[in-house]
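Sharing in case it's useful to others searching the archive later.

Someone asked me privately for the predicted structure of Helix-turn-helix domain-containing protein, so I'm posting the question and my answer publicly. Question first, with the sequence:
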Amino acid sequence: MPSSPSSSAQAAREALAARLQHLRRDAGLTGKELSDQCGWHPAKTTRIQRAKITPSDADIRAWCAACNADNQVPDLIATARAVDSMYLEWRRLHSDGMKRVQEDWYMLHQQAGMCRTYVSNVVPGFFQTPAYATALMQSITDFQGTPNDVTDAVAARIARSRFLYEGVHRFVVLLEEWVLRSRIGGPETMAGQLRHLLTVMPLPSVSLGIIPFTAQRAVWPLEAFYAFDDRILVETLTAEINVAQPRELADYRKAFAALSEMAVYGDQARTLISSAIDALN
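And my answer, the predicted C-alpha cells:
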C-alpha cells in the first residue's frame, strides 16, 4: 500500500510497526535473524519496521512464529486490516466497477442520523440527478480505466436520495459556488441538476449553504469530506481516506464550523443557484 497523505493512516501504520519491532526485540532477534526465520529478504523486515509497507496476514503469522508470540496474531492481523482500510485507492475500490462502492455509501447513509458534507468539486451524490451522475461517473471510469458499470452504479448512487425523504436522517451540506458553475455533462444536464438543488432545499431534512466566490476566506477551499456522526471520509483524486486520529477529526469539525459561517442560505443561496442556471443560457 502506498504511503498515505493522511497522518491518521500513517500514524496507525507506525504504531503497528512499533508493536512488531517490540516483539522482535523481546524475542532477542536481530532484523536479519528474524528475516532468515521468516524466509524473506532483510529489506522487507526493514520496510515493515519503518512503516513503509503494511504486512499481510501471512507476514504477521510468520513474524509472530519467529518471535514465539502466536497469541498476538489475531490482534495484530485485525490492526493491520484496520490500517489498510484507512487509505483505499479508488482504482482498487473500483477494480470491479463502481456499483459496490455506491452500495457501501448507501449503507453509511442508512445507518447515520447526521451527515455533514463539504464539497468543493461536484454536487454530493445524494443530491445528484441521474443525468448528472451518469456524466460524472462516466468521466471517472474513463479517467481511472476501471470496468464500466456506470448504469448500475448510477442506480445505486441515486438510491441514496430516498433518505432525504424517509426516516430521521439529516443532511447539512456546504457547497463552494464554483460547484454550481462547473459543468458536468451538457448545459441541459447541468440546468437539471441546479433546478434539482432548488427542489431539495426546502426539505426538512436538508440544510444547504453555498460559499460565494466573494466570501472572505476564514478557511481555504478544501478537499471534499463527509462526516457521518463520528466518522469522517475524505475524497482525494486517488483515494478515499478514513480519518481516525482524534486531532484530525477535531480539525475537520473546526473547519466545517468555520466554512458554515462563510456560507449563505435561504434566498441568498437560491439567488446564486438561479444565477448559475441563467449563466448556462
